[in-house]
Amino acid sequence: MEFDSPEEKEFPGLYASEAADTKSKKSKEESDFSEGDYDKHSKKDLLLGRRKDKKDKGKDRGYAALDGESSPEEELDTKSPSKSKKSKTFKFVSSKSKEKREKSRDKEKETKGVEEEQALKTKEKEKDKEKERQHDEKEQKKKEKERKEKDKKDKTDKKDKKDKKSKQTQQEDTSEHDEAVALGCPIFGVPLSLATERSRCHDGVDLPLVVRDCIDVLQQEQSLRCPTIYVVEPHNVSHFKRLYNNREYDADMDEMDTHTACTLLILFLRELPEPILTTDLLTSFEEVSRNRSVTKRETELQQLVEQLPKCNRTLLGWLMLHFDSTVQQCRYNKFNAQSLALLLRQHLQMSQRLMVVLMYHATHLFPDIKLIKYVPPLTSASPELPDKPEEIQMELRKQDSLLSQIHNEMNEGFINKKREEQLWEVQRIITQLKRKLRSCEKKQEKSVDEVESSTSAPPPPPQSDTTDSKPNPPQIEATAQQLGEAMPTTDSSPSPPSVIDKETGYLLLPKTNPQRDELLRLQIEFDELMSWQNELKTRIITERNEIFRLKQVYEQEALKPQATAIASQEQLPEEGDYERIIEHYTRENALLEHKKQMLGMELKEERRACIALQVELRLQQF
Amino acid sequence: MSKKPTAGPALHKVIMVGSGGVGKSALTLQFMYDEFVEDYEPTKADSYRKKVVLDGEEVQIDILDTAGQEDYAAIRDNYFRSGEGFLCVFSITDDESFQATQEFREQILRVKNDESIPFLLVGNKCDLNDKRKVPLNECQQRAQLWSVPYVETSAKTRENVDKVFFDLMREIRSRKTEDSKATSGRAKDRCKKRRLKCTLLVFFDLIRDISSRKKQRQMDVKEPAKPSPCCQLL
């Protein structure tokens, strides 16, 4: 990239200022700038000798493609705001891809024999479990990767002599193969669904982890505002790629910067075997994007987007929303939708227009998607486990998802020491979380949970005289619980020697302590209330049993409908009386229900008084 | 994941195996937290880590409590593979759980491919001696066949709970030092021997088991004629 880089460094700033200029001015400058570009290159070409030929071709091709793809009506719009940048970046992209094509052709000839041999070896080494498809994927991936690597190599070594370069690339090849052998189930270069499945985000978002991490990095404000976001020199991300392929990426250890994230994200997208919009739907998407009615376009796009496989839809949504937020920072990064689309359309395998359209509609097309930063499952290195039950449950879901992924991978034969360690560790965290959750639940059980469950969902309607048993328990339990909670605090506060009454188990403070009576009273009351609670609980159980028994009887009765039918026929009343009788009984029943409730209240009060007296009585004993 | 304190004290990995409801989790929890859980809740898999002092040396023990139920047998292999020592638990009040230890032993040997893997046969619930269904001598006999120690425990009374874990850790430790001493060549030889011994032992074991079962059946006609698990090996 040596000869490209000076330009790149100069350009963003240069064009940034221009981008702010008016459109009319720009269209005029347009031609100048492209000329300038050409000039520069021809100079360089002279310097570089024969290497230039390829470059030039690439450039030409790039321009041709651009002209062909942008439609006349959009032309002005597209070019004016950042014309200069476009030509620049485009050239960069095109030269890269051009070179890629050329190189891969050359190299493939050179190394095809070696490659095949090694591929065979790799195959042999692979486990029987591995499916044919995976072999293919692997090979495909490997080849792609090689191309990529060569690309990079070439870029950095452009000035090197040819023979030297070929040596190096061959070395690269072998190292590539070694790497490939070590990989069981790669993430890069496999179909999106497979990549998603293999490296899940454990919070339920269907994105491959690598994409999620990259977008997370890029969504940071400083990334979004970086004027060189997506204008990156090719830079070696094979380290990160390997980490992701081996599931060894650790955000704490290897932090990605903006440009690494860009490159890695683009690399991932480029290595996808199928366009994000899928081969089947791509043409329909392109057609729809030509629709000039905004609302119609949106509904049509909506329909198409819903046809995409789920993981494709998610990836598209995340990317478009992210690009949209990138463009929203155009004040800082000088990117508008057009220029960004021009820069990235190739990697996303869609036209510039389509990409602009998708970005424009992103928020409406993907209302369900929010770019949430991924919080990976906790590890043993994480300082603290969550405390709130909901958080624990959320973390548990993540850990469970992680655990099942580990199991799946291990069952596929993706086994190494690290995996096993991880398996135990995840299992340990799950165990801890479960224990914590259980203790939380136990704490809540008596107070909140029971009150809620018994008040919000009272037992089935009264069948026999359940009287007051239902409304009471929650209150009683709540008070009992409050007392129970209050106890320890009063227990612990007095330091003078306290005695435990042997008969009752009460804590007795010395007679001098003013809190003695209070504590004693509370303890006795607690006792009484507990016994009442138990009494009511047993009653609930008997009532429930009764309900169950009655239900069974009912079911049995229902089995012989004829008998009941006959019985009811016998006492059929006259037509007129019928309604009157129903009305009468309804009223009567309502009245009885009311009376019963009043009695229940009374009974409760009586019982309360009873308990109070009982407490006083027992207090006398001490 | 990457910041494990493995560099510190030695880490011994213990796996609890055995049928459902024999008290694997109870033993583990008693060892870990000195608590006895009355209510039964089937385990899927749980893992614990504890720092202990083993013969004056601070070590860490990782305990993996596996599921007794067959439902989770699919993921068992993944765990067995990474275990360094096994506590094979049955309940002395449940003959079926005792018979099942045979299968667990076989599965472990198959996965580890090593007959001398640290292994303890543990008869739990010895506080319920009055409800004993598995005679002591039968347990000892089986342990002898496998040349492994046999210990009776009670998770409820904590009897021998520490003992089984510490005994197993000692075995794992001695096994590790032995392994690190051995050169690669010798290790291979030993491995071969082990395997041979293993197959022979399993074979003998099988014959003896069959004959003992026959005797038992003659004695106890009531016992339902269920397929003996060891026959499945053939």
TrEMBL record, chain A:
GO molecular function terms attached to this record: GTPase activator activity; small GTPase binding
A single GO BP: small GTPase-mediated signal transduction
Domain of life where this protein originates: Eukaryota
Rho-GAP domain location: 190-386
Region spans: Disordered: 1-178, 441-502
Keywords: GTPase activation
Biased composition (Basic and acidic residues): 1-11, 20-62, 96-160
Record's protein name: GH18557
Native source organism of the sequence: Drosophila grimshawi
Automatic annotation (TrEMBL), chain B:
Family: Belongs to the small GTPase superfamily. Ras family.
The organism of origin for this protein: Drosophila grimshawi
Entry-linked NCBIfam families: small_GTP
Gene Ontology molecular-function annotations: G protein activity; GTP binding; PDZ domain binding
Enzyme class: hydrolase
Locations listed in the record: Cell membrane
Organismal lineage: Eukaryota, Metazoa, Ecdysozoa, Arthropoda, Hexapoda
Any Pfam family: Ras
Keyword terms of this UniProt record: Cell membrane, GTP-binding, Hydrolase, Lipoprotein, Membrane, Methylation, Nucleotide-binding, Prenylation
Assigned GO CC terms: plasma membrane
Record's protein name: small monomeric GTPase
Enzyme Commission identifier(s): 3.6.5.2
GO biological process: border follicle cell migration; innate immune response; negative regulation of JNK cascade; positive regulation of epidermal growth factor receptor signaling pathway; positive regulation of stem cell proliferation; R3/R4 cell fate commitment; Ras protein signal transduction; receptor internalization
InterPro entries: P-loop_NTPase, Small_GTP-bd, Small_GTPase, Small_GTPase_Ras-type
